[in-house]
Design a protein that fits this description.
Blueprint: E1 2-9, E2 15-18, H1 20-30, E3 36-41, E4 48-52, H2 58-69, H3 86-90, E5 98-104, E6 107-108, E7 115-120, E8 127-135
Antiparallel strand pairs: 1-8, 2-7, 3-5, 3-8, 4-7, 5-6
Length: 137
């Protein structure tokens, strides 16, 4: 198994950050044209990973849906951090902190328009870590 941790700057407001290029770079260095699985993990309690289309508004739509479903209000029991921060701790129940992606010939076998994205609703932590692991059988 080959593993690498990258740092992603998400900023001080909710963000969807496309990390596909970093995943492909990692595979280019470690997969050597092999078949296997790329496992992506975010070791944070307030962020997740999504496989979605980006650049056509879906990333903004996702942030809007998070705001609608999990509003940043004072109703959350978990209350440290910025207003409504408790919702950030609930997010990984819907957008998990991991994704396993099939790799064929050293490349992610995405469908049309798919990308892997870091979803970070928490502006309190502007820097995140993402772990890539390539597993072969």
């Amino acid at each position: 198994m080959r593993t690498e941790v990258i740092t992603v700057r998400t900023g001080s407001s909710p963000a969807v950050v496309d990390i596909t290029a970093e995943a492909e770079r990692f595979l280019g260095e470690h997969a050597s044209g092999a078949d296997g699985l790329l496992h992506v993990f975010v070791p944070h309690a307030t962020a997740g990973l999504a496989v979605i289309e980006t650049g056509a508004g879906s990333d903004e739509d996702l942030l809007t849906a998070i705001g609608d479903l999990l509003p940043a209000q004072d109703r959350w029991v978990h209350r440290h951090g910025s207003r409504g921060h408790g919702r950030d701790h609930v997010l990984p129940a819907w957008i998990p902190p991991y994704a396993s992606l099939p790799v064929f010939g050293g490349r992610i076998a995405f469908g049309t328009w798919q990308s892997v994205c870091l979803v970070d609703p928490n502006g309190d932590n502007p820097v995140r870590q993402v772990r890539f692991s390539f597993l072969t059988g």
